[in-house]
Design goal:
151 residues, mainly alpha, 0% strand, elongated
Length: 151
């Protein structure tokens, strides 16, 4: 199997999960699928396979004592880049699922954070944390106003 085919397959594999969380967040099927560990088991298994294949004495040295120049040189190799990319896919989807589950649990609006998470995982996480904080601030501000009106 070529590295390009694995790259394309891994990218296509994650898209339905993101689409379900963004487009059909309240569908029972989405909830059931996103609570399953199997998408993560599949991606993490692919990562393990790629990681084992990508490790050479040079890449092991770069990882054991990371220096920016050594890491940059290691990431100049397609097998290492693919391994890193699958790492991003696994972790971004995992964070996306957490954002989705938090939105389901708290009622906080999350589609914008999920969309950001699909394209830039940490920005999606930051967006959700800010959204949740603003929602918490807004709710806290609304409670005293509602209590004052009922008095």
């Amino acid at each position: 199997m070529t590295l390009a085919l694995i790259f394309d397959g891994a990218n296509l594999f994650v898209l339905p999960f993101w689409a379900l969380m963004i487009l059909l967040p309240n569908w029972t099927g989405t909830r059931r699928i996103m609570t399953s560990p199997w998408p993560f088991v599949a991606l993490a298994s692919l990562y393990l396979y790629l990681f084992i294949r990508a490790i050479t004495p040079d890449t092991a040295q770069a990882l054991a004592s990371p220096q920016l120049a050594d890491i940059a040189q290691a990431f100049g190799q397609e097998p290492v880049v693919l391994t890193g990319w699958v790492h991003f896919l696994v972790m971004d989807l995992f964070v996306g699922r957490w954002i989705y589950e938090e939105g389901q649990r708290t009622g906080v609006w999350v589609w914008h954070s999920l969309l950001l998470g699909l394209f830039a995982g940490p920005l999606g996480l930051l967006s959700h944390l800010i959204t949740a904080a603003v929602r918490g601030w807004w709710d806290a501000k609304a409670v005293p106003a509602a209590e004052a009106e009922s008095s």
